[in-house]
Every structure is written in structure tokens, then in C-alpha cells.
């Protein structure tokens, strides 16, 4: 399963044995590189960046670290090792041998699933393309670029499946993945959260914490797929995804640590004394809470409608499972199972019991929410340790929703249904205002000296790959 680097496209899928496929992908490759030049990290193509590159798919020692110019990064096609005599583990085909090819009757649905996942990968690179110009340190700049090149590789992962298993349709979809662009008026990315801007580094950390975690849950559900190549592709993508969420979690923690430190040094007890905190050039805690509210609510929309017949179809067909499907001890058919979802009734949110098969989006969303809340508690420990009387909190899942049964309903962060007037009167306290965003933007300035950090963020406790914090992570040219 080692990766062949002597070929134009590094891979562990014996690409050279399938000349037609190899040619098709080698034809797509220059278009990908052109997209990277046009839409990838701005003004950074000549930098030498200390990046990890996959060299193996086994858990130990899968990555190599070294300085590389991003356009020379070896993007490739890597599938996790096959699991012997793997089966379809859920749905109506449960017990059958896992499919090594696309079953005809599931072709359209599988294509849709793969295209939707594939579309998010280049979208996030586009959303983050200006951030390098205002990086708070070399260490952070390197992490941004690492996330970017790996999202690029995730696009490769999906494009491989499209080319190999979906013929001409697949090749057309692969082209379209390079043509849609985040935020484009005429040809936007498929999912709304991937058309939002990532305008500053606080937004970047929140995005990698919350939205890359959506990636983790989608990939985990797809890694259960009965379509074995999709499962193996997603399993290896998950290995890379962990670092993206680390960048987000540690990034927010470092912002919090710095704010607390500066508050302490200056004897500021009241976290709501925003004016004094801002005068000191750090990000006030209420603004952090509003960024959290925004990214949390936009991200949980990505899981789709709470009641969905598509989700039921994908599950029953064996295409997309639940998070950790095979670790659950039910019948994996779910025909008789129910699930409690929330609905709006007489001006209040009430629980309602519905068939589980139709609520699988909600099941995945709830698993996601549990996982993201765990990190919020870890952030709160930073403030607790510093003796600052403020705690972050994930908003209620009905807050600021645009998809599903809460769309168009005004709900406070605590989960109370409110009037438009109450929403308007309070929204500045709940979601980042123009002024908040302008303040955060005003802090963004490029710090490029090794070992130096912008005033608003604490250094990390350790460097990347056991390198010192003042290591030259990026060599500029
Ligand atoms: Fe990704
Ligand atoms: Fe990611």
C-alpha cells in the first residue's frame, strides 16, 4: 500500500495499470493547477512552506515533512487499506459483500453524494485565499497552507472516484468542481456555508473548528458506505482532517488565552468592559461568543433538513451510514426505530417522535453537536484557569437556522421563540456586527518574523512536528 511517487500523480491505486483513467486524470491535473494558481492562497505561490505530505496510508509514519512550494505539492490519490471481506453493514443490502463498483440503481445518488462532498473541499481554499496576507505568525501561516493543500487533496480524492466510476458524467462533474467558485454570483458552491467569506483569522479558527468538524462527520458517515472505494477514500481523508480541527481548537484557545492574560495584566475584571479590552488590542470575549454563535449555526445547517427522505434513501441503500455505524448495537435497518426531533408548536419548541430513518440528518447533527460542545468546555477551562469570569456556550440548535423546520423562525441563543422585534433589538449581542468584524479586521496585520506573534494571540505551547516555535516554517521569496 505504499505510495508511488515516480508517477505524475502520486497514488496507491495502481493508476498506471489503467491507462485510460490515468490519461483522463492527467488531463484534469493542469486544470487543477490552474485553479490553484487563480483561486488558491494569494501571493504565496513562491514561498517554501514546511508541509506534510502523505507517503503511506498506514497509521504510523504516514507523513513526511519538508519545505515545498505549494504549486509543487504532490497532490495524489490515496485510499486506506482494504478491509478483508468487508460487507455492506446497514440498510436493505446489509450482509452483502461491499460493492467494488457502483451499483446501477444507486449511481445517481452516489454521484450526488460525491459531488456535494467534493464541492466543499476547493470551496474552503477559495474562502481562505486572502488570509495569508494577514497571518499572525509563521507558525499560523504554515498551518493555513497545510489545511489548504490538504483540502486540495480532498478534491483529488473525490475527483478520482468521479473519473474512475462515473465515466463521462464523472469527468464533467470533475470539471464543474473547478468552475463553481465560493461566493460567485452566477456559479456558486453548492452549500451555503461554503459561500460565506472567511474574512479574518478568528473566522478561520472558528471555521476550522466547526466547519471542518462537519467535514469529519460527513466523511465518517461516508466511510461506512457499502460502496467500498468511497469508504476507503474517506477513511484516509479523516486522518488528514484531524489537523484541521486542531488548528481551529488551538487557535481559538490561544486567542482566549491572550485576551485573559491582557485583562489580568491590566486589572480588567469585567469581560463586558469591551471598550477597555479593545483599547489593549485583543479580542473581547463577547465578540468571541458572537463569532462562535455564527459559525455554529451556519455549520449545523450543513447537515440538511431535520426530516429528509433523501437521508432515508441513502441509508436504506447502504450508501451513507451514521457516525460510527458499526459500533452501534441496533439492527442497522432502523425500520422500527424512532427519534425525537424538535418542532415548533403554538409558539414553542416541543419534542416530537418521528421515524428514525427520516431523521438521519438530525441524528448526525446531534452527534456533531455533542462533539463540538466538548471542545467548547475545553475552551472554558482556559478562562477558568486564568480566573476570568466568562464562559462560552454553544447556542441552541434552533438559533439562526436557515435550513429545516427552524428556517424563518426567530429563536434566541437560549432556545426561546421570539418576535422579529426582539430579534432585531438583540441581534447585535448574538451575532457579529459590522462593527465587531471591523474591529477584528483592524487587528489583522502580517507578522512574519520567526517566533513572533501578533498581539491578539498567544504562541502555541509546541511547534509543528516537534520543531521549535521560532522555526522557519515559511521561507519567503
Ligand atoms: Fe476536506
Ligand atoms: Fe478539512
Distinctive features:
single chain; 477 residues; mainly alpha; Ribonucleotide Reductase, subunit A; 7% strand; globular; binds fe (ii) ion
Architecture overview:
One of its GO terms (molecular function) is oxidoreductase activity. InterPro entries: Aromatic_CoA_ox/epox (IPR052703), Benzoyl_CoA_Oase_BoxB (IPR017635), Ferritin-like_SF (IPR009078), RNR-like (IPR012348). This is Benzoyl-CoA oxygenase, component B. By secondary structure, this protein is mainly α. It has 12 helices and 5 strands. Strand 3 and strand 4 (348-355) form a beta hairpin. Helix 2 packs parallel to helix 4 and helix 5 packs antiparallel against helix 6. 45% of the residues are buried. Bound molecules: fe (ii) ion (2 copies). One fe (ii) ion is lined by residues 121, 151, 154, 215. One fe (ii) ion is lined by residues 151, 212, 215, 241, 244.
Q: Name the average pLDDT.
A: 96
Based on secondary structure, the structural category is mainly alpha
Biggest sheet, spatial arrangement of strands: 2-1-5
Biggest sheet architecture: 3 strands, antiparallel
Number of domains: 1
Q: Which CATH top level class fits?
A: Mainly Alpha
Give the low-pLDDT segments. none
Rg of Cα set: 23 Å
Q: Bin the helical content.
A: 40-55%
- Count of extended strands: 5
Which series of helices and strands comes N to C?
HEEHHHHHHHHEEHHHE
| Strand percent estimate | 5-15%
Ligand catalogue: fe (ii) ion
Distance between the termini: 36 Å
Q: What is the CATH-assigned architecture?
A: Orthogonal Bundle
Overall geometric form: globular
Number of helix segments?
A: 12
CATH topology (level 3) name? Ribonucleotide Reductase, subunit A
